[in-house]
Amino acid sequence: IVELAEHKKWMIMKTLNEIEQAVRQLSPEEFAAFRSWFAEFNTLRDTTNRINAIEQKALRKLLEKQDTDDIDLESQGIDRAQAHILRSSLATFSDDWDSPEMSICDNYDAAKDSVQTR
User: CA angle, corner 55, sides to 51 and 56, nearest 5?
Assistant: First the structure.
């Protein structure tokens, strides 16, 4: 396992070095385009991470049967447009969530414990 981890680390470092070398070889125009793309990528990644964190917090509250209206999205860095995206992405999940089969999630820990003891 240690050898595999070291091999994976070496492969990542090799890839990072290759990326660094490739970036250094870009023309000024290509570098400007790369910087623009990377800035957009970072913004999207950060937004996705914040939305995922909010989704997980909301899901935990649902599982705990707590009121989710008290989640302050703005304090979590989620604006109205991002909240709309979040709401839209969760809308397809709501029908499944309300199905009778999902009642197992109401007592998830107990269900998990009963499966583990079998």
Answer: 120
Burial bucket for residue 51 (CB in 10 Å: 0-12, 13-18, 19+): buried
Average pLDDT score over residue span 17-31: 90
> pLDDT band for position 67 (50/70/90)?
low
pLDDT band at 106 (very low <50, low <70, confident <90, very high): low
Other Cβ atoms within 10 Å of 67 Cβ, number: 9
Strands (E), 8-112: none
Backbone angles phi, psi at 106, to 5 degrees: -65, -35
**Residue 59 predicted with pLDDT over 60:** yes
Which pLDDT score, from 0 to 100, does residue 104 have? 64
Please state, in angstroms and rounded to a whole number, the distance separating the CA atoms of residues 48 and 44: 6
d(CA 3, CA 43): 35
Dihedral angle sign, alpha carbons of residues 76, 78, 80, 82:
negative
